[in-house]
């Protein structure tokens, strides 16, 4: 089973939350509405996001889009709302969903809405270099061609009573609307909007660090302290999980604290698929180094 983590999202419609209690209950991430359209800021954003960060949860914010307005102005509105709170490990989302009466989509084609979303995401990425920017959107928006590719997806779909707990969501198949990879699945709105993320809490926290601020450098979980750089290895279990997530080790292989033959075989498979990261002249290379680990971790979790 894919390792997951649990989260909630809130807006001005929700009252003050006991974030420490949420954390004790197993929540590891939380997102708050920051803004909407060209001018509106959510009245409770500051209260929510301060509590989320104080509790040590992976934080994030979202902006409700009006694609029939200016992407640049809306991005600026969002940036002004979150800039005091955003930093490494902070996630950003464009909430792209049609009002029931269509007033925020009126007059725009699918292609124009996609252009709006692409421009908004680019503006936010420019404002917060290296931080991750994703999109919250529905199966119908994806199928209609309104959603850019190659961005993290936070996907709402409610199966109903059959999936209204985190345990049931874990057992349910991972959604794949129009063949797209879903990073977060919002599976219910009762009693709060609740989502699962298809990463463990520690992997999510690492993934949320993004590109470490320069758009190019990626920092995976560190090697254990005390190992010489040329002999460093990640912990065996951490490595095994990454190999499985990236498809270089069968998921049926039990986790083990030992860097044994099956783990080494997975590393060899990774190196042969990505020879840049293996030792010069070797096709059989079971020892992974820092650069290879960074590349493997990105393949495993940066989807």
In short:
With 303 residues, the chain is α/β, with parallel strands linked by helices. Helix content is 33%, strand content 17%.
Tell me the Rg in angstroms: 20 Å
How much helical structure, as a percent, in the residues?
25-40%
Largest sheet: 8 strands, mixed, barrel
Give the strand tally.
9
The main sheet orders its strands as 1-2-4-5-6-7-8-9
What's the number of structural domains?
2
User: What is the 3D shape?
Assistant: globular
CATH third-level topology of the largest domain: TIM Barrel
The low-confidence runs, each spanning 5 or more residues with pLDDT under 50, are 212-220, 223-231
First-last Cα distance = 18 Å
Residue-averaged pLDDT, rounded? 88
CATH architecture field of the largest domain:
Alpha-Beta Barrel
CATH class placement of the largest domain: Alpha Beta
Q: What order do the SSEs take from the amino end to the carboxyl end, as H and E?
A: EHEEHEHEHEHEHEEHHHH
Oligomer: single chain
SS class: alpha/beta
How many individual helices?
Answer: 10
CATH H-tier superfamily of the largest domain = Glycosidases
Strand content: 15-25%
